[in-house]
Design a protein that fits this description.
Layout (H helix, E strand, L loop, with lengths): L7 H13 L6 H8 L13 H24 L4 H18 L1 H8 L8 H18 L5 H23 L10 H18 L1
Helix pairs in contact: 3-4, 3-6, 4-5, 4-7, 5-7, 6-7, 7-8
């Protein structure tokens, strides 16, 4: 067993790597990977659920920061599509992690999760405010999340493999058509 001190960040990073690799995530498997006792994890997280939700909050917050940086200065229709594509590409590239996040119920029990989803909501709303009237923003935000999550799951699990049309081009077209219809409604 390892005698050096560990940090909460090391545990989270190890768990994320394990999720990405498709490994089962338990205190036992994490502790074996880190060469520590599973009991030592309780010094950082009260239980497995707390660790999982800290991972959810961490991943969503990091994705928001990356998407913000990549799309800084963009706005309107092109900005909304670019932001949506950014989240879609991250999810497809990290399908195991995306599935892990998506599989967890929304909760306000953990502040890190609440903060992360508020960050996501704010990012989407700021991009949409330059494109839609205020009363349509919440519908557009839900529309975008539905299309992004659906595409991540379908593409990431191999459902959208057609030589006639790429998954990305059909995603862009569906998003554009939906946003245009919402804008004109």
């Amino acid at each position: 067993m390892r005698t050096a001190t560990i940090s909460k960040q090391e545990i989270i990073k190890t768990a994320i790597i394990m999720i990405e690799n498709g490994d089962k995530l338990t205190f036992s498997t994490i502790s074996r990977k880190m060469k520590i006792t599973s009991q030592s994890l309780y010094n950082y997280f009260k239980n497995q659920e707390e660790l999982e939700y800290v991972i959810v909050g961490t991943v969503v917050s990091l994705a928001c920061k990356m998407a913000f940086t990549k799309n800084f200065g963009k706005s309107g229709r092109e900005g909304v599509i670019s932001l949506s594509l950014t989240f879609r590409k991250m999810g497809v590239r990290h399908i195991n992690l995306a599935q892990f996040v998506i599989s967890h119920h929304r909760t306000n029990q953990y502040q890190i999760v609440t903060d992360a989803f508020n960050e996501l909501k704010s990012l989407l709303e700021r991009m949409l405010e330059n494109y839609l009237d205020n009363e349509k923003i919440i519908k557009a935000s839900r529309l975008i999340r539905n299309l992004v999550v659906g595409d991540i799951l379908n593409v990431g699990t191999g459902w959208f493999k057609s030589p006639e049309v790429t998954a990305e081009s059909s995603f862009i077209e569906m998003l554009d058509l939906s946003l245009t219809a919402l804008r004109n409604s």
